[in-house]
Amino acid sequence: MSVNKLFKEKLKIVNVGSPSFIKDYEVQNIDYVHLEWRPPAGGNLKLLSLLNRIRPNMDLINKANEEVVSKIKAAEAKLVAVKQAIKVIPGMTSHMILHSGPPITFDKMCGPMQGAIIGALMYEGLAKNQDEALNLAESGNITFDSAHHHNAVGPMAGIISASMPVHVIYNETHGNYSYCTINEGLGKVLRYGANSEEVLTRLKLMEKVVMPVLNQAVEIAGGIDIKSIITQALHMGDDCHNRSKASSALFLREVAGYIVETNFSDEMKEQTINFIKNNEHYFLNLSMPYCKVALDSARNTKNSTVVLAMSRNGVDFGIQLANNSDKWFTAPANYVKGLLFPGFTEDDAAPDIGDSSITETCGIGGFAMGGAPAIVQFVGGGVQKAFDYSKEMHQITAGSHQVFTLPTLDFMPTALGIDILKVVETNILPIINTGMAHKKAGVGQVGAGLVTPPMACFEKALEDFAKSIQGEK
Amino acid sequence: MKDFKVLKKTYYDSVTLMSVTIAIKKALNLNDLVMFMGTDMNKEMMNSVGLYNQVFDEATPNDLLLGVEMEEENSDWADQVIEQLNNKNKKHESANTIYKTIAQAKEAKDSNLAIISVPGIYAANEAYKALENDMHVMLFSDNVSIEDEIALKDLALKKDLLVMGPDCGTAIINGKGLCFANQVSKGNIGLVAASGTGLQEVTVIIDKFGGGITQAIGVGGRDLSEAVGGKMTLKGIDALNEDAETKLIVVISKPPHKNVLDKIINKLETVKKPVVVCLLDTKIDQKIDNVYFVSTLTEAGQKALELIGKKTPNLTELDNELKTRIQKEKELKKPTQTKVKGLFCGGTLAAEALSILRGGLDGITSNVAKKENEKMKNPMKSQGNNLIDLGDDMFTQGKPHPMIEPTIRLDRIISEAKNPETSVILLDFELGLGSHDDPVGVTIDTIIESKQLAEKDGRHISFVAYVCGTNKDFQGLEKSEKLLRDQGVIVAKTNAHAAIIASSIVGGAK
Amino acid sequence: MDKEVKVKSIDRDILHMIKDHQAYIYAIHKNSVHICVCNTLITVGDLIPEGKHHVVISQNIIFNSLGLKINQLIYIIDKNLYIGDMQLMIDDIAIKDYQSYDFTYVKTIKLNDSINQLLIIIDKNVHEEMFLKYNTRILKIVTNRVNQFLKIPILENAQLILGLGQGLTPYGDDILVGYIMGRNTIGYPIEWIENLIDFVDEKTTKLSAQNIKDTKDRIYPYIYVEMIEELFNENKIEHAIELMKIGDTSGVGMLLGFLHGIKAGDEDNERF
Question: Is residue B96 part of a domain?
């Protein structure tokens, strides 16, 4: 676009700044756009100068980001098995407990997570009661680690222990795996920190009944295509994070026939089918590892500013980038704002918790809000707000999906590839649609709503990235 | 209770007015609502029905008067009326898209030029983004660091894009005036300028005497510094050289650094079209084929016009009519009146006046002077012959620029008039986009007042003015000049012309 | 838009004025816009009658949905009129040379019948209905003054209705315009007309002032010419009745004034 070319064209102006020039454009019949301009990075000059330092490398960065987005989009993943954690999760041991979010020591963990760990230790038989479990947890003889470090994710407390069954997801495009527990359902559940007899019994059922039956069914099927279910469910009002009714139903439809074909007893088949049928959040524990396996395929792409993980441990929020993927950038998590169930107040809620924000990281969940009008009641602004959020996310991503589209927005594809540069510059944070846990262990869910990561995570990531890319030159 | 509002220059037909009246009366449960144009008879009528208020006094027949009588207080009745009137006049704006970033706008509209006027600390960032999106940039903002200016211009040159600025207040691209610019006829002269008002003056002179322009490219005040090295000036010259429509190039600059001047001269040696170079306040002895060096804006305009075959009247000498007039003025002076006081809105115009007046006027000083001996000790206080640029930072802290708000000059005019040594008050008025709606209109009363003030003291003050504008500028050139002439102000043809007249009145050499 | 919108009629002088000078949008209405060029107001629309200061277009355009702005420039380049994004073609046949209407007529007895017939129609059916929506006090003031003028058409009374009424062309002005047109038509000049013209710029809206001056100069929109010719040559009132539908009260006001204008001097001269 050369200078002499400009002389031959019609002027099309973008007015950045004073609206007093607008009348001059109009009087001269000039085609113009006036920006609703806000100081970038919220007016923070330090961040702005970081952005400026990175600026000369934009070409490198854009190329890397494109690569990352392509890889994520290209993931084709199936549920290929359901096995015990210790059998499939890399690095898993009998005395290891994986949790959601960035690394954290037991003493610092929030109520629900500690409660869940206590439950897990009892489930494993490593402790006979809660007090013993607590002592064991504090003793230092149990290794705690982020599930993310082991290619795994879990909702809420996200606790994975050796004997727990996990879904095994395989990305055919890239050849990598991811793992996630089976969703227990609603009510008193381990992931909200409950550890009563009821909880442990249910966990045993899942290990003894659901796991073998489902595993064989999946083998017979030759794997269940998870991406295809997500694609369809997005067209059916799911966001695949907070609302998974359609996707869970589709999964059951896919797998039911194969369950029947397995050679287990009728009773076990029935229990398995009912277990899945009665849990309308079943699919969350399949959409999460799908996102994980897709995002993981782009790990360690040099010079890319795309976020590959967003996760919370109930205290801190952490993100990881495609560039130098093992580094966490953390800051205290925000509280979820939204609708509280009757009988609870905002004071009852724990801070944002869980690996489930991996869905937003992969362009679904809150990013697909516009297609899930049923979630609107938690958005507090009506359907239009939900549309607006889905559209707004495009301003902070490096690209968009191909097959994940929203019919309500004219089949607009969802935004994909959160770019920290754009987040800092526009001051727009990724929107997450999630549940609220009671801050005390074991009480359960107290509501649901919207939350964003703290800007500090992105600022830290930016600082680190600026250093790393300058080292490149 | 009653309430009233005047909507200036508001035109609605009676059908609309009537239906909105009915609708609003019902919606807000008003006792009465009347809306009439502000003719004398309508005012009488509204008075007769008890719905008149003194806010209506100043209203003209082309303003809409609103009067309401309501039981309960409803403070936004007027807003609702206006909204309803407008609703009848606006289509349903579906998808009123809000653009927050340059990238968004570019994607949606394929924009080709970003005009940036955000605070300096953010301006560079926006400019980078524009360039990255393959858009040309006009950087109105100042306070951009020199490092950023260099980096931006380097990036622009790599991509064959323009960066006009920082601190670029004037440009005319494809016939459209940008920021502060006059409506100038289209023609065959292309300009590159490091000064906004300088560009305005030359384009106005070209238009006034039958010429026209192709493009007027602003490069920002610092482009010709040693560090920036004239990057955009050179680029502008190249672009105009390549532009088939442009038959003649004018380069307007402040005195550049020697290295930069050399670069420009080297460039000009490769240009085939005739070039007029105006280096304000500098004389160049170099002789290059087809290149003409001048040192005032008026000369630049004249030379350009001459080269495209347009005649101009003599703008640097005084014709007989003027000489007679000046003589008359001189005869009315008291012996104490020996000094010229220039009060300018345009900095470059002040600088040009300085360069012309220094020859004839003793000890002239100015707050725009670069030479040590010409710098004003205290620009707030007039002393001797002096020229003040009221647009300088020291006067505009927290206040609008005098081109936008000429009233900030008024007090100074009065105080100069009170000074017994004042013989001539020299004023400039800028018309065109960005400038005040009626710069002369808003000043004329003060001129009258000052003259009277001085007359009481037995002193006759000569006012010499120049209106920098074309007959197409919305403020009205003819109207403005007439307003001045009617009050005995001597209206010059160009800024330099005004300076020469002023000098002549005080007798030149003193 | 299925076909191109064209200019159906434009006065040659006005066309050149717009070409050579700055023309800008003065006011925007639903079916019409006002353009100002060389201090003259031109109305552009499809429903307006042809006339020197009217540009008639071939199709309805909803001008207030085009995103136009006051003071926005409009252009004529080659054979096209550009208003905002609209491009309206000007065929050669659309360019007219509007002249002032200099004919005068003699009244006949039969004509008087027509006049009275029209007056009755106006009085009975139209007048009351028309003003029903107005505030009754205002209605009273306006009608009293108008009646006063129509009864005794002297300068003082004319001044009392100049600028009186709602909208861009107040009812009082419509009456005056009609009256002047009536007096012109019977060749009976108004003694105080020059005095009135001196006031109009100050005392009423720009558009209305222009109308009054045009009318004094015998420049009428073409439908008025048609009405006059039909009335005086054929003694028919069809066009006149059509005219009453114009605007809210404008058409009626003009006709009422006109009828009084042509009746003027009946008592005290032997004109017919």
Answer: no
Q: Is the pLDDT of residue A91 over 50?
A: yes
Cα–Cα distance measured from residue A402 to residue A404, given in angstroms and rounded to the nearest whole number: 6
Specify the residue for token string 């220094």: B358
Among B122, B159, B215, select the one facing A40 at the smallest CB separation: B122
Task: Determine the residue type at B428.
Answer: D
Q: How far apart are CA B137 and CA B114, in angstroms?
A: 5
CA A122 to chain centre: 28
- The ipTM of this complex is 0.79
Distance of residue B179 Cα from the nearest chain A Cα, in angstroms: 6
Number of compact structural domains in chain B: 3
Strand duo A165-171 + A176-181: pairing: antiparallel
Mean pLDDT of B79-85: 83
Question: Residue C123: how many CA atoms within 13 Å on its side-chain side?
Answer: 8
Note if the bond before B402 is cis, omega within 30 degrees. no
- The residue ranges of every structural domain in chain A are 1-37, 58-62+299-470, 77-290
3-state SS class at A179: strand
The alpha-carbon radius of gyration of chain C (Å, integer) is: 19
B188-206 pLDDT per residue, tens = 999 999 988 999 999 999 9
Q: Looking at this protein, which amino acid is placed at residue B295?
A: S
Q: Which one, of B373, C143, B100, C128, lies nearest residue A39 by Cα?
A: B100
| Residue A444, both tokens | 């359960």
C-alpha–C-alpha distance, residues C170 and C175, integer Å = 9
Candidates B306, B253, B256; CA nearest to B278 is: B253
Min distance A457 CA to chain B CA atoms (Å)? 22
Check C166 against B36: CB less than 8 A apart. yes
The structure's pTM equals 0.60
Q: Is the pLDDT of residue C132 over 70?
A: no
Matching residue, tokens 């107001």: C41
d(CA C114, CA A222): 98
- The confidence score (pLDDT) of residue A376 equals 67
**Residue B353's domain spans which residues?**
320-505
Level-2 CATH architecture, domain A58-62+299-470:
Alpha-Beta Complex (3.90)
Asked if residue C270 has pLDDT above 80, the reply is no
CA B372 vs CA A398, B366, B378: distances in Å: 56, 10, 13
Judged against a pLDDT cut of 70, whether residue C134 lies above it is answered with no
Q: In which order are the strands placed within the sheet that holds A329-332?
A: A329-332, A316-321, A307-313, A353-354
Lowest mean pLDDT among B235-249, B272-286, C163-177: B272-286
Q: Note the Cα B296 to chain centre separation in Å.
A: 19
| Contact: A26, C72; criterion CB under 8 Å | yes
Contact B434, A24 (CB under 8 A): yes
Query: How many CB atoms neighbour CB A59 within 10 A?
Result: 10
User: Residue B366 and residue B345: Cα distance in Å, rounded?
Assistant: 13
Do B296 and B346 lie in one domain? The reply is no
User: Tell me, what CATH number does B454's domain have?
Assistant: 3.40.50.261
CA dihedral B124, B130, B131, B135 (to 10 degrees): -140
CB contact under 8 A, A28 and C84: no
pLDDT above 90: percentage of residues in chain C: 47
State the average pLDDT over residues B422-433.
Answer: 95
B-C interface: how many C-beta pairs under 8 angstroms? 105
Contact check, Cβ <8 Å, C164/B474: no
Scanning the structure block, which residue is given the tokens 């029935």? A270
The CATH class, in words, for A77-290 is alpha beta
Q: At residue B144, what is the residue type?
A: V
Burial of B456 (0-12, 13-18, 19+ CB in 10 A): exposed
Q: What is the pLDDT of residue C129?
A: 56
Summary mean pLDDT of chain A = 92
Element containing residue B32 per DSSP (H, E): strand B30-37
Model pLDDT for residues A428-441, shown as the tens digit of each residue:
899 998 888 999 88
